[in-house]
């Protein structure tokens, strides 16, 4: 006679209890969140690949070719870059653009910083912020054309005022010495409010207690601006400088509707020279080489700016 055997349940297996065990969801919460994230990111990613990565890679390829749009591109190696190094118009365009950037960034940053500090210390009015922002809401081409007619040598209101006070009229867009400063002033007027609001947002992050402590110590407004505002605003100013310098190097539309590079190449900035070479002379290979050189120049300039301004470090403990 054999003894009855009992079967023990295996470890980890649930005993049947008569209740229906809960079913596992087909899609876990983590996977649902990942799908939702991809749903938001995918349109922007497709746009980035289609309108930035693909054109950039195409431009890199064309920069090594002789391509006139009518025939197939012919690979010519580094010939476009050799030509670029010996092209006086290219270096003139780089110099003209740098001159414009120096005037534009210098004036724009100082004025925007002054406006932002005044708004921060004197008023928080939304109406004032809206008024400051108004010029930025006007399209670049429209702003440039309005100022172009206001600065007109014969009929412009600015020259009428200059003539009325007994001074000689000025050919703001017709003289080489005046053309780039005039273009820079137009863009300073248009972008100053936007830059001021960026700096104003940075000022909002500085604790009021710091200013209160400075006031208790007897610090004047000027002393607190120099010892509190500027050091604590450094990371924001670094970001603003990177954005404005990069944007300034891309100057095109104001030049296209006012001077078209003249007089005597005095306003032929690098972006307008690239456009002229590619779309007027159909030299896409050489235009692509200049565009790539500009990209490398801006990347190096931005890297140096970020390192010098220590943009990733704040003095706010």
UniProtKB/TrEMBL annotation:
Listed PROSITE patterns: ABC_TM1
Tell where it localizes.
Answer: Cell membrane
- A GO cellular-component term linked to this record: plasma membrane
Q: Which residues form a coiled coil?
A: none
- UniProt keyword list: Cell membrane, Membrane, Sugar transport, Transmembrane, Transmembrane helix, Transport
The transmembrane residues are 34-57, 99-119, 131-150, 178-201, 232-252, 284-304
- Residues of the ABC transmembrane type-1 domain: 94-307
Q: How does it sit in the membrane?
A: Multi-pass membrane protein
**Top-level taxonomic group:** Bacteria
Give an example GO biological process. transmembrane transport
| InterPro entries per record | ABC_transporter_permease, MetI-like, MetI-like_sf
What the record says about family reads: Belongs to the binding-protein-dependent transport system permease family.
Q: What is this protein called?
A: Multiple sugar transport system permease protein
- Organism, per UniProt? Conyzicola lurida
């Amino acid at each position: 006679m054999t003894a009855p055997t009992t079967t023990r349940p295996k470890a980890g297996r649930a005993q049947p209890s008569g209740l229906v065990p809960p079913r596992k969801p087909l899609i876990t919460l983590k996977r649902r969140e990942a799908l939702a994230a991809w749903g938001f990111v995918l349109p922007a990613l497709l746009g980035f690949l289609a309108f930035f990565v693909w054109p950039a890679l195409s431009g890199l390829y064309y920069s090594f070719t002789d391509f006139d749009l009518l025939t197939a591109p012919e690979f010519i190696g580094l010939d476009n870059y050799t030509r670029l190094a010996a092209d006086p118009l290219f270096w003139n365009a780089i110099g003209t653009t740098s001159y414009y950037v120096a005037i534009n960034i210098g004036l724009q940053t100082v004025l925007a910083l002054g406006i932002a500090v005044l708004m921060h210390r004197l008023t928080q009015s939304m109406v004032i912020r809206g008024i400051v922002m108004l010029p930025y809401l006007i399209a670049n081409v429209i702003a440039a054309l309005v100022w172009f007619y206001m600065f007109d040598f014969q009929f412009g209101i600015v020259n009428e005022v200059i003539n009325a006070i007994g001074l000689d009229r000025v050919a703001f867009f017709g003289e080489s010495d005046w053309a780039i400063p005039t273009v820079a002033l137009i863009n300073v007027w248009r972008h100053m409010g936007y830059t001021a609001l960026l700096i104003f947002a940075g000022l909002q992050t500085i604790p009021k207690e710091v200013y209160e402590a400075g006031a208790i110590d007897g610090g004047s407004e000027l002393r607190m601006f120099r010892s509190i505002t500027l050091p604590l605003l450094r990371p924001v100013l670094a970001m603003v400088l990177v954005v404005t310098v990069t944007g300034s190097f891309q100057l095109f539309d104001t030049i296209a509707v006012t001077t078209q590079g003249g007089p005597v190449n005095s306003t032929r900035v690098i972006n307008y020279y690239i456009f002229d070479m590619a779309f007027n002379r159909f030299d896409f290979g050489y235009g692509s080489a200049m565009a790539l050189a500009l990209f490398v120049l801006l990347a190096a300039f931005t890297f140096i700016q970020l390192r010098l301004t220590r943009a990733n470090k704040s003095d706010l403990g």
